Amino acid sequence: MNTPRLHLRKIVASDLNDFHDIWSNTEATKWSSCGPKKTLEESQSWLNGILPEKNDNGDNYAVFIRGHAHKMIGIVGVYSFRPAAELGYVFHPDVWGQGYATEALKAFMAVYRELRPSVDAVEAKTDVEHKGSIRVLSKCGFENVEMLRDNISLPAMGLRSSYLFRIERPRKG
Q1: pLDDT (tens digit, 9 = 90+) per residue, 86-109?
Q2: What is the pTM of this model?
Q3: DSSP notation for 84-147
């Protein structure tokens, strides 16, 4: 799928090196409960868990700047249902602040609703201090529905609180 500036496609095993460039970056993974991947093998294991052929519940996309399809800048997708569809995304810090996450997430959500017509809601959690992610989710129509106190341990920062954001499928009629 294409947006004015981006190309998104299903993530594939051959994306490993770019995937590792993002997931081994301590700044990119600062807000992730998974933390950075120290080795290519750790990244391979993480990537294997979100590949379409190995995760029936997942719909994960590699994000590229159009005209630069040789270098992935981020990943966006749903990787599990616990109990709702759980959204995740991560972008390389080199592209932060340029609107790419918002553009990619809007495109993903439009396609995801078509691919998964039975999914009524998608949820995302973000640290209460992660201003960039809060902005992205809000711009994409997600609503902050709950604050979860001391619910997640981030390798870079310890026990943290997060906001639960949700977007529901528009009702017909």
Answers
A1: 999 999 999 999 999 999 999 999
A2: 0.93
A3: SEEEEEEE-GGGTTSSHHHHHHHHHHHHHHHH-TT--EEEEEEETT-HHHHHHHHHTT-EEEEE
